[in-house]
Every structure is written in structure tokens, then in C-alpha cells.
Amino acid sequence: MQSVTVWMTENCNLKCKYCYEGQEKREKKFDLFHIDTLTKFIDREIFDSNEKNEKVIISFHGGEPLLEFQSMKKIVQTLDKISLKKAIPIVYEITTNGNANEMEFLEFIKNREDFRISVSLDGNKETNDFFRVTRLGESSFYKAFKFAKHLLQMDKYPRIRMTLTPKTVDCLYENIVFFIEEGFTMIVTVPDFFDKEWKYGHLKKLKKQLHKLNEYQRTLQPQNVQISLLDESFFLKKVGRCFGGLNEINISCDGLLYPCTYTMNNTKYCIGNIWEGIDTKKQKKLLTMYTQNNVECSGCGLESACISTRCKFLNEAITGNCNTPVPIICAFMNIIYHFFRDVNTNSQIIVRYQDKTGGIKNVRKNYN
Fold first, then answer.
1. What is the pLDDT of residue 24?
2. Percentages helix, strand, coil for the chain, rounded to the nearest 5?
3. What are the CA-CA distances from residue 210 to residues 1, 138, 235, 351 (Å)?
4. Is the separation of the CB atoms in 141 and 127 below 8 Å?
5. Which residue has the higher pLDDT, 318 or 352?
6. How far apart are alpha carbons 326 and 318 in whole angstroms?
7. In whole angstroms, what is the distance from residue 77 CA to residue 322 CA?
8. Which letter does DSSP use for residue 264 in this model?
9. What's the pTM value of the predicted model, to 2 decimals?
10. Could you give the CA distance from residue 7 to residue 4 in angstroms, rounded to a whole number?
């Protein structure tokens, strides 16, 4: 195991309308008194098992993790000492809305090169404020954007993390170009697969937006910019199986251990705690589940690249069954496939997808 995500809090200062964690947040946070136990657990389970001295990824999650900045700072400082003693490098990751303790955080990382920072912004102010508002319903854009610009000025090069919904598909091109022209070089767009408003027409619009972005990238965009939606390997490479709980783990505010973010507080998937360690029997049960195939995906040429093949817990969160693929993901992957087929040279692949009437089709297509 080389990756750990620590949930600093379940609380959040925003009230994003699409949040998969729900609108009402528990005001639970990681207890300062448990930080010593936490870091000893990470030392024992992660550092001591790292035979090749490979880098370890420590991520901070929430809620909004920077609400508990002081606790996060203490964890980092303690792990830094372990890292130095055992000569094992750490990469810290955090995704933040940029609206809490942002200046204190900037001061803390100003001389550090080991933080990967993602700032959640869905686009320009108009687009961002469709969904990302404070608890009082006010704009969250200005503070987040100012924070992201500060990171640029410090040469920290943040990742802009955009959530894509049916309501924002039409302005996808406009918003990605907005960020590029503001100097940002990495824009990662994540579709909200929990949104029940997705229709076939939205995906057709998405494809048009992708072609506009491709033309922009080909003719105008600076070469050092990365747009996830235009990265073939980001969506269509073989993803393999997820092994959450085996090679990565999530630690809740209560110190309980879970395979991934979609399983948090689901006691069915709790695999131990930071005091007693990992329950290996429960780990083995997870492995059995991960190796099961989605019957409906059999014969699809995109099966090995599809999110629904890899992410069993996302399937369960949306469809209620780990091995039942999410229809909107099938349709999304089909659109992505067609887009890359259009802009690349041709060879053949069989794609199985749901059409707009809900029917299942196997179609032999050209794709490189």
C-alpha cells in the first residue's frame, strides 16, 4: 500500500448543490488527540512495508480539509520527520474549495515542493455559481479564484478541478479557455455521474464542445497546457482493477479504515481502524469483489478502459449493485470513444453501448 487519504473533516463551508456527500454535513473532524495514533499507523502500515523506498502519497480530504488546517499541518510535520528518518519521499495532495484558511495554507507551503494542489472551480463566476455557493447562498468564486491565482504566482501550478453537469455542458469550451487564458496549465473535468438530468442530447453537446476544444488546442493553445478531456490516455487507456483497501486506504475522522471515498461511513466496507490495524480477512473479501466482471460489459471493446469496470463502489453508489454499470457512464464513454475516433487515424474496435432509447448495441467501429 502506497497511498493514504485522511479525512480531516466531514464539515464544509460551502453548500454545493451537486455534492455526492449530501447537502447536510456532519460537523465531525479528526481529533487532535488521535494524530499521534494516525501517524504511527501510517508509519507501520505504509513506511515499514515500503521495501523499495518508493514515494508515498498522502491526501487530505473532506468536507473541506482546510477547515482543519492546524491539524493537517501537525500531521504533515510529523510525517515529514518519519520521511526524513526512513529516506522515503512523500507527496502530499489536497483538493480545496479555496474558501477556508487559504492564506495560512499558502504561507505554510511557500517553501515546499511536495504539495499537489487542486482547486475546485467549475468555470468563470457565472458558471461556478450555478452550484458552488456558500452556506448562505453567496458566491464562492472570488476567494477560490484569488487563491488559485496566488498559487500560480508562487509557481505552484494548481490543478483546476471542474465538475461537469448537464447545465454546464454548453459552456464547457468557454470555461476551459477562460482558465487557460488566466494562466492555468492543468484543467481536469469530472462529469457528475450522480446527476439524474443527463440526457442523450447533453452528450451530443459535449461532443461538439470537445471538437471546439480540440481545434483550440491544435491551433491556439500553449503547448504546456493539459486538458484532461483531450487526453486520450486519461479516458481510453486500460485502467485495470481498483484495489482500494489494498494499495490505498481512506481514514475517516473516527480513525476507521475504508477502501475509498464512496464507502466512507458504510460499516459494511470498514476494514479496520488506526488502533488495531487492518483486518486482512476483510481485505481478501474486497479482492474477491474486485475480480468479478460486470456481465453487462462483456464484449464491449471499452470494457478495459471504462470507469464502471474499475470503480465497483461508484457503481453501487448509483445503481445499487457493484457489478451493474452506470448507464450514463456507458453513454459518456461511447461519446468519448467517438470523439477520439474522429480526431485520430482508424483501426477497428467493438463498442457496446446504450443508445438513446435504452437499448444495448454491439457496434464494430474504427479507432486507433
1. 65
2. 45, 20, 40
3. 36, 31, 13, 20
4. no
5. 318
6. 7
7. 38
8. T
9. 0.89
10. 10
Measured between alpha carbons, how far is 345 from 69 in angstroms, rounded to an integer?
Answer: 49
Q: What tens digit of pLDDT does each residue of 20-55 get?
A: 776 666 789 999 999 999 999 999 999 988 877 789
Residue with cell 510535520: 77
DSSP 134-152: BTTS-B-HHHHHHHHHHHH
Distance of CA 254 to the CA centre of its chain: 22
CA distances for 275 relative to 38, 45, 48, 72, 204, angstroms: 8, 12, 16, 19, 51
Task: State the DSSP string of 17-43.
Answer: TT-TT-SS----B--GGGHHHHHHHHI
Question: How far is it, in rounded angstroms, from Cα 228 to Cα 249?
Answer: 25
The CA distance from 175 to 10, in Å, is: 29
Contact, 162 vs 123, CB < 8 A?
Answer: yes
